[in-house]
Design goal:
Blueprint (H helix, E strand, L loop, with lengths): L3 E3 L18 H17 L3 E7 L2 E7 L3 E2 L3 E4 L3 E4 L3 E5 L1
Parallel strand pairs: 1-3
Antiparallel strand pairs: 2-3, 2-7, 4-5, 5-6
Length: 88
């Protein structure tokens, strides 16, 4: 899959839409791991998510993971149901 790399400041939350794939426990566990890596080791993850303009990816620190959202810097929240993949 080809996703456009953008900066976290460019994320337009009004254009984020649900991903077509079903989320597995694997994606949720990778999100939790990326949050731990970011908070404990300042490591960044690549989050690929779906938008009205196609797949986008951002290389950033995941600050927290809740039941429905991930939180990035600058109070940006991405719904977990919109995430296509997580790489770290």
């Amino acid at each position: 899959m080809t996703a456009e790399l953008i900066e976290k400041e460019e994320i337009d939350v009004t254009k984020i839409i649900p991903a077509e794939n079903k989320h597995t426990d694997d994606i949720v566990s990778r999100l939790a791991a990326s949050s731990r890596l970011g908070n404990e080791f300042k490591a960044k993850a690549t989050i690929i998510f779906n938008t009205t303009e196609g797949a986008k990816k951002v290389h950033t620190t995941v600050w927290s993971v809740t039941e429905k959202y991930i939180q990035l810097k600058n109070n940006v929240h991405i719904p977990i149901k919109c995430i296509i993949d997580v790489e770290y």
